[in-house]
């Protein structure tokens, strides 16, 4: 108990609180600017921490991390441009709500769901970190492959116009993810002899081109001034009755994000798509998903923000960073004298508990700072339309190039934007393309490693472990449910039409 009280005292020191506010607000702004995100934000602020003490420096970086994940949802809702890849799934229902004049409601749900998911993941981190870490170790390549296959079902759900078009775009994204060096053998693929392509296509330029630049092209091509206006936005938190009505969706998305975040090598984007796919099957309002339903925002935002807390489980307990962001956080910890691993809770318990308290305070600060942050974006969007569009394009290219410093990423963003614009004109959904790009590398690498483990026997995947078997059974049940639902709709269609004709004739 003395250790916990001392940790709380370290976390609420005024210098630490100032670092939390600065980091969180900066993270929200950086996350909301198209093409930037958590990695860029941490890269900017990491040098400033070298003169700080351990808790203060980690508070600043954790604030930037959590704030940037939430900030991506603001532009995803306002202008159909996710500031970060983690918020790509938020566009599916967030932007339709904006088009329906419900932007305040959409922002309110995104903010509350982000806060709820972040706090719940912190609570789980405090009480369940050792147990979750031990369970996460059981996930090998085959289990991860089954989990990614479950997430790929999201492609069917977001392809409302035509499943065939959605699958085609999903395969396109999967092919994009295969460009560059083979993750297993190291051989170059689809590079056409170009050294610049050997590093492959980064996710951020593709997401920026798919959503941001294509949206700019659509707005420039639209001559209707009313349709081209950037909406003014405020923030209206949901009523307690609405929160209770959707409490199950909030808890489910938060638990999915907490679970996925504890698995090394997954990440917030994967978590958001898996949570959205589950909502498509389990939400009582699933028929409205993709048309402006808050459950879609809740599924995405509660899940991707829950990852921010649970991603520290493998990092702190096992010394295994789950993605690029947690790898940077782990490097910052080592610089400031924190050695992640199995001995951390024993040797530096006070520091670990202080970080847990900081995570909770950061989520509270994110809730408090959300309204002034959205007000800042509202001010920016009041600028003349040409300035706003030019600013979006500028930040898109800066964000596309700054992550890796590869000039080719600017070309990739531009070409992807043109391709996405052509696909939108043809009625093709863009979400499957990003889903294929996000999940493609994990799907391929886990499949090939699993085949090496099973010596080429794919059927062995289904009986490899209880976890893998359970996940494959869930996939089978979801596919059966989807087919049964589509057949039921087809059978009901002619009946409804005949009843309508009969009523008209009467």
TrEMBL record:
Keyword Metal-binding: no
Keyword Cell inner membrane recorded: no
Pfam family, one: TctA
Keywords of the record: Membrane, Transmembrane, Transmembrane helix
Boundaries of every DUF112 domain copy: 17-435
Membrane-spanning intervals of the chain: 16-46, 58-79, 106-128, 135-158, 192-213, 255-279, 352-374, 386-403, 410-438, 458-484
Name of the protein described by the UniProt record: C4-dicarboxylate ABC transporter permease
Species name: Halomonas cupida
């Amino acid at each position: 108990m003395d250790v916990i009280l001392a940790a709380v005292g370290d976390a609420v020191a005024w210098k630490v609180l100032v670092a939390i506010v600065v980091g969180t607000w900066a993270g929200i702004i950086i996350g909301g600017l198209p093409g930037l995100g958590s990695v860029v934000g941490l890269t900017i602020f990491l040098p400033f921490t070298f003169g700080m003490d351990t808790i203060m420096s980690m508070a600043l970086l954790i604030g930037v991390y959590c704030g940037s994940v939430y900030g991506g949802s603001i532009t995803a809702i306002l202008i159909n441009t996710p500031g970060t890849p983690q918020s790509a799934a938020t566009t599916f229902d967030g932007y339709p709500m904006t088009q329906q004049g419900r932007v305040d409601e959409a922002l309110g749900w995104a903010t509350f769901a982000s806060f709820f998911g972040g706090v719940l993941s912190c609570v789980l981190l405090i009480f369940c970190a050792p147990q979750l870490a031990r369970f996460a170790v059981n996930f090998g390549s085959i289990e991860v492959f089954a989990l990614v296959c479950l997430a790929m079902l999201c492609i069917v759900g977001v392809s409302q116009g035509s499943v065939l078009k959605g699958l085609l775009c999903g395969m396109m994204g999967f092919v994009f993810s295969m460009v560059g060096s083979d993750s297993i053998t190291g051989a170059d693929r689809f590079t056409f002899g170009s050294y610049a392509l050997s590093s492959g296509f980064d996710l951020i330029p593709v997401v920026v081109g798919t959503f941001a630049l294509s949206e700019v092209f659509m707005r420039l091509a639209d001559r209707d001034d009313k349709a081209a206006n950037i909406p003014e936005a405020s923030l209206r938190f949901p009523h307690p009755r609405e929160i209770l009505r959707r409490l199950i969706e909030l808890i489910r998305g938060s638990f999915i994000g907490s679970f996925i975040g504890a698995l090394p090598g997954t990440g917030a984007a994967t978590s958001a798509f898996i949570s959205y796919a589950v909502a498509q099957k389990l939400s009582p309002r699933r028929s409205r998903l993709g048309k402006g339903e808050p459950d879609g925002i809740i599924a995405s935002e509660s899940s991707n923000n829950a990852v921010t807390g649970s991603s520290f489980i493998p990092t702190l307990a096992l010394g295994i960073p789950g993605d690029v962001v947690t790898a940077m956080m782990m490097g910052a910890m080592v610089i400031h004298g924190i050695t992640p691993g199995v001995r951390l809770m024993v040797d530096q318990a006070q520091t670990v508990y202080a970080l847990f308290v900081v995570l909770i305070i950061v989520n509270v600060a994110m809730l408090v700072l959300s309204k002034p942050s959205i007000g800042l974006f509202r001010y920016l969007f009041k600028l003349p339309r040409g300035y706003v569009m030019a600013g979006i394009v500028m930040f898109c290219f800066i964000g596309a190039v700054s992550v890796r410093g590869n000039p080719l990423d600017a070309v990739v963003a531009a070409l992807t934007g043109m391709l996405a614009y052509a696909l939108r004109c043809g009625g093709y959904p863009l979400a499957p393309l990003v889903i294929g790009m996000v999940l493609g590398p994990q799907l391929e690498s886990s499949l090939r490693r699993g085949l090496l483990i099973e010596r080429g026997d794919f059927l062995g995947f289904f009986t490899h472990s209880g976890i893998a078997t359970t996940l494959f059974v869930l996939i089978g049940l979801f596919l059966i449910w989807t087919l049964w639902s589509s057949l039921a709709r087809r059978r009901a269609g002619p009946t409804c039409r005949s009843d309508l004709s009969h009523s008209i004739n009467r």
